[in-house]
């Protein structure tokens, strides 16, 4: 992700039960859900072919398949995009040792197979893992086939793997196995909605605006300090001129400037609309909805959504209000543009600067 401070905390669980810390997490990454990488032999992989399904139903069908076709009695699953299809990873929850709960306490980590933490590729390759070897087939940067062995892939084992991949030319002998570093730009650490829970989606969208919000906050802080200084100076000048001269026009202009600066200061003290907009976008993104317009005002956010969002309008209202960012959420339809428009007030998260000190 090229932003080390956004990397979450990362641990690795081996098939022998050992738990190893790989990354403590960046400054902002520690606010994200930690990631637990599972050794490849603790996981199962399958491609879900969705080409015959309507595009709007493919993800839903893949999710349903992930729930119903798990090879484990108590299993977890992760869904990743693989071209026009979906890759499904499963793992056995019962094989997670008590050490995992002890390490993370009450925080449930995002569980991912170690393969998703490898650099993406194209074509065939064999990866040497801490526990065994993995044969892979990649297409356009997406993993489409994977098989694990405890021992090296010899000729027969390699041909058994490649023979299952129809319509793809494969070398007769396995490629030289290679060890790969952890790729913190990989799928395992992605902020993409398909791989995270509802709460993560909200937090991730807000986190996606974190850099801009931090920069804006620093700018606004400096502006706020300057505004207070300017407001105080103009107040003193206005009082002095009021005593020295009867010119009402000059006094009126100074009073207007003072009020304008006071308005700017109140705006600076309010919740930054960038973070609120990020949270709103994250909520609708979880439902596969992309806003057609976003307007952020001083104390309100307006989202323009496709008309299909009307079907889940009640649920969206509940999630907006439950996020802690918004209140007085009011949806309305716009027949001419076939849109659902959601207007909501932004809660103030920061106390006035005067009260802070």
Task: Describe how the helices and strands are arranged.
Blueprint: E1 10-13, E2 19-23, E3 35-38, E4 43-48, H1 58-68, E5 75-82, E6 85-92, H2 98-104, E7 110-113, E8 123-128, E9 133-139, E10 142-149, H3 155-162, H4 198-208, H5 210-244, H6 248-269, H7 273-286, E11 293-296, E12 300-306, H8 313-322, E13 326-334, E14 339-346, H9 353-356
Helix pairs in contact: 4-7, 5-6
In words, what does this structure look like?
There is one protein chain. This protein is α+β, with helices and mostly antiparallel strands. It folds into two domains: 4-193, no CATH class; 197-357, no CATH class. It contains nine helices and 14 strands. The strands form four sheets. The protein has a four-stranded mixed beta sheet, with no helix packed on it. Strands 11-12-14-13 form a four-stranded antiparallel beta sheet, covered by helices on one side. The chain is elongated. Mean pLDDT is 78; it is low at 192-206, 208-212, 214-220, 267-271 and 349-357.
Strand content: 15-25%
Binned, the helix content reads 25-40%
| Secondary-structure element order, N to C | EEEEHEEHEEEEHHHHHEEHEEH
Kindly report the average pLDDT value.
78
Supply the helix-strand structural class.
alpha+beta
Largest sheet: 4 strands, mixed
Tally of individual domains: 2
Q: Short description, anyone?
A:
The chain has 357 residues and is α+β, with helices and mostly antiparallel strands. The chain has two domains: 190 residues, no CATH class; 161 residues, no CATH class. It has a four-stranded mixed β-sheet, with no helix packed on it. Strands 11-12-14-13 form a four-stranded antiparallel β-sheet, covered by helices on one side. A three-stranded antiparallel β-sheet has the order 4-6-5, covered by helices on one side.
